[in-house]
Amino acid sequence: MKEFKTTYPDENYTVHVGHGIFNETLQYYTSGYDDVLYIVDENVHAHFKHTVIKHIKAPVLTRSGEAAKTAEAFMQLVESLLERGIKRSSLVVVIGGGATGDAGGFAASVTLRGVDFIQVPTTLLAHDSAIGGKTAINSSHGKNLIGAFHRPRGVIYDLDFLTTLPEPEILSGFGEVYKHALLNSEKAVTVLMDRTAGGIKAEDLEDSIIEGIRTKMYYVSEDEFESGSRKFLNLGHTLGHAIEYEYKIPHGHAVMLGLYAMMFISNNETDSGLFDLEAHQRYFSNLGYPMEILETLDPVRMLKYMKHDKKNTSDDTVGFILMNNDFQPYFTEIGTGKMVKYIRAMKESL
Amino acid sequence: MKEFKTTYPDENYTVHVGHGIFNETLQYYTSGYDDVLYIVDENVHAHFKHTVIKHIKAPVLTRSGEAAKTAEAFMQLVESLLERGIKRSSLVVVIGGGATGDAGGFAASVTLRGVDFIQVPTTLLAHDSAIGGKTAINSSHGKNLIGAFHRPRGVIYDLDFLTTLPEPEILSGFGEVYKHALLNSEKAVTVLMDRTAGGIKAEDLEDSIIEGIRTKMYYVSEDEFESGSRKFLNLGHTLGHAIEYEYKIPHGHAVMLGLYAMMFISNNETDSGLFDLEAHQRYFSNLGYPMEILETLDPVRMLKYMKHDKKNTSDDTVGFILMNNDFQPYFTEIGTGKMVKYIRAMKESL
Ligand SMILES: NC(=O)c1ccc[n+]([C@@H]2O[C@H](COP(=O)([O-])OP(=O)(O)OC[C@H]3O[C@@H](n4cnc5c(N)ncnc54)[C@H](O)[C@@H]3O)[C@@H](O)[C@H]2O)c1
Ligand SMILES: NC(=O)c1ccc[n+]([C@@H]2O[C@H](COP(=O)([O-])OP(=O)(O)OC[C@H]3O[C@@H](n4cnc5c(N)ncnc54)[C@H](O)[C@@H]3O)[C@@H](O)[C@H]2O)c1
């Protein structure tokens, strides 16, 4: 088992990564609490209820995917915790993908004005979402617009959960693995592309996942509330979220398309050939990402969604993370007119 | 105008109290923000839309009373803020009684994972609720079970708002004024009883309100997250909340009955005549509090509600604040059996 600790001034937590570590590691956390309540993704429950989580009684089940992140599902989740007699001295253990993690973490944050919780990510993507204390549900105006910063007490990433993950979910989760490689170094990207040239297999990715976790932890420890460098984790996400919202495709797929757009715009802004766009287009397509969606984007609708993004503070620009010639991310405001032009130019280039 | 500042290590805020201070004081706050959104209690809006708040365009109105604190009303409130294009750099100004303050503050806390807000209390009770950063909505399992700690950036208490407050609301708000006097000193209680011997008038209470604000600020600055002394502010509230929930009477009325029960139990626990129960019964009745409800309490139902209280951590006791012979509040756990007996004994004594 590998362990990483956040580096906040206080209230730090550990991220445990390994195989078959769930029960033993959890025990270490639960001992200090009066009682433990479980929130479990319905699919994870179906797969593991006779094995690794068989000791869990009366879990609160969440519906698969974004259905867990509606206002109604969320309020029901909170009511279910209260129904089970949750106290301030209880521990909530949230077991599932990013959606369950987001809704469950937010529920722990507002129930009784905040109870402690543990994240147990079960998808590839959730190596990312389970770390950093961001929790959220969706609004009719956009994704993740309602939520809280609420640090988990610990994160237990048992890679054995990934064995039952369907292929599309591996593909989706890989979007964030790829993003973390981009934020890490040019070398990390090359290594990752080599590892996945023949397709993505979770078991080939363990080193890259661990590197990804470290990259994520670095940024969230540096800037918990996203007033500065944490924004860089948004690489690919501003347009990615808009695409996800419009086309209802998985988060990581949308992020990957967003990363491609980021590369396109970065090349144009820095007037360089930093990214080999053709190679990337081929690589992403071969892996199975729906690159054809990029050819159908309606720039004005995309802009409308992007302007709803929490990170945006001004009316006539869109905040965007790009990468410079030194392979470093930077934040910039792109005028709305220019952004429309970039999206059009990208469509034509494909 | 009087001004008081919290004494946290950082992020302190000022409570401004005075007559006709709303607009000028607000200006001082709004200048630093990109835009300002208003959440206004529907009754306050009806009373003041042609005068002191006439400059406010497109406010989000909240329904009067606890109707503002249902899950549905709350989610609609958040969606309305998003609908109006709220950004992280926006300021939310919440104008109304404790219910609007609680729902509005909680909405500010979770919209975009938190935006700044100002409390503008307009009821007598809200001299209390607007201070301390506790926000909440109600659950089907009890009051205020879903919420957040979210400090306002400032509190503007313009006493002119109180002029339109209906009598029952004055009576309700007085419950917290009385509680603060109890927490303040025996002298403060005597003074307050003298001031109100002939009935409660808001204009006679200004000094007591200001003392109440200082008492509240002392406790919330000392112990923001209620791990210690802040619990004392719960004087009268454990049973009070249960009564409020069961009988649907105003918060302050229920608190006053809860304070009477506290006096009854304190006298019994300390085996003293600290409180003159008969005099208090007469005084509360004369002012118009529904003391007769105390004679109808179902101890077992009351216990059930009390056990749902956030402050309770154990199954066979109820956490309760009492007062000792030195007129100091203290926290104690009362066994459930004993509590049932106390409620029965109090019923018989009335
Ligand atoms: N909080 C953050 O910082 C953050 C960061 C990135 C993404 N997110 C959020 O994460 C969500 C996406 O997360 P996700 O991709 O994990 O999606 P998800 O949680 O919807 O899970 C994807 C699917 O896999 C199933 N599943 C989960 N674990 C499984 C397992 N071990 N075996 C079989 N099936 C399993 C789920 O039931 C679901 O059907 C989005 O809502 C996104 O907004 C949050
Ligand atoms: N957050 C805290 O620390 C805290 C502390 C105590 C109470 N509370 C909460 O406060 C709430 C009770 O507050 P409240 O007693 O102010 O009730 P309220 O907000 O329901 O207001 C009472 C009534 O007065 C009306 N009103 C408000 N201002 C008015 C004005 N100036 N003129 C005429 N009418 C006006 C309202 O529309 C409502 O009908 C409860 O929900 C309670 O849980 C919170």
UniProtKB/TrEMBL annotation, chains A, B:
- NAD as a keyword? yes
* SUPFAM superfamilies associated with the record: Dehydroquinate synthase-like
Q: What does the UniProt keyword field contain?
A: Amino-acid biosynthesis, Aromatic amino acid biosynthesis, Cobalt, Lyase, Metal-binding, NAD
The molecular function terms in GO held by this entry are: 3-dehydroquinate synthase activity; metal ion binding
Stored InterPro entries:
Dehydroquinate_synthase, DHQ_synth_fam, DHQS/DOIS_N, DHQS_C
- Cofactor(s) essential for the protein: NAD(+); Co(2+)
Residue ranges constituting the 3-dehydroquinate synthase N-terminal domain according to the UniProt record:
62-170
The Gene Ontology biological process terms listed for this entry are: amino acid biosynthetic process; aromatic amino acid family biosynthetic process
Entry protein name: 3-dehydroquinate synthase
Give the species this sequence originates from.
Lacicoccus alkaliphilus DSM 16010
